[in-house]
Amino acid sequence: MKVFIGADYRGFDAKNALLDFLRSQNYDVVDEGAFEKVEGDDFNDPAIRVATNVQKEPGAFGILICDSAHGMTMQANRLKGIRAAHCGSVESALLAREHDDANILCLSAHFLAPDEMNSIADKFLTQKFEPLERRVRRIKRLDEETKND
After folding, report:
1. pLDDT one-digit tens code per residue, 90-134
2. What's phi and psi for 6, nearest 5 deg?
3. Which of 5, 74, 76, 139 has its CA 20 to 30 A from that of 65?
């Protein structure tokens, strides 16, 4: 399974620790940056790189880490076919995968310790989607055009 991972400067150290964990678990991990810790860099760039790669490679997953995980989640979800979920617990990761077929996990470097990130990422990457009709229908609707009247 291929996993694309990215972070901004606030998630840089957590990303590197999570990279080590994922590689120790034999995941095929691709680091999409940041490649150096530059205070004030933009979360947008690694989020776009990770989301674009997940979008292009069926079956791949992404992991994004920034301070709160909010910006990364918002940026990634702008791409069609991306279902990025901000998860702060193992249970939320389970539900993001099982119910919503999320393909990108967003983690907060501010609120989560490295061991928590490891557990959350492991659950996210191993949990299967349960394709109930209502779930599949709802997921298809995520990529529909909406009109604001």
Report:
1. 999 999 999 999 999 999 999 999 999 999 999 999 999 999 999
2. -150, 160
3. 139
The total of other beta-carbon atoms located within 10 Å of residue 98's CB is 16
Residue indicated by tokens 């940041």: 34
Q: Which residues are catalytic?
A: 66, 99
Would you say the pTM of this structure is higher than 0.90? yes
Question: What Å distances lie between residue 140 and 38, 60, 73, CA to CA?
Answer: 38, 18, 19
Label residue 149 by pLDDT band (50, 70, 90): low
Could you tell me which of 34, 50, 51 has the C-alpha nearest to residue 42?
A: 34
Phi, psi of 137 (to 5 degrees): -60, -45
String of DSSP letters for the chain: -EEEEEE-TTTHHHHHHHHHHHHHTT-EEEE-S--S--TT--THHHHHHHHHHHHHSTT-EEEEEESSSHHHHHHHTTSTT--EEE-SSHHHHHHHHHHH---EEEEETTT--HHHHHHHHHHHHHPPP---HHHHHHHHHHTS-----
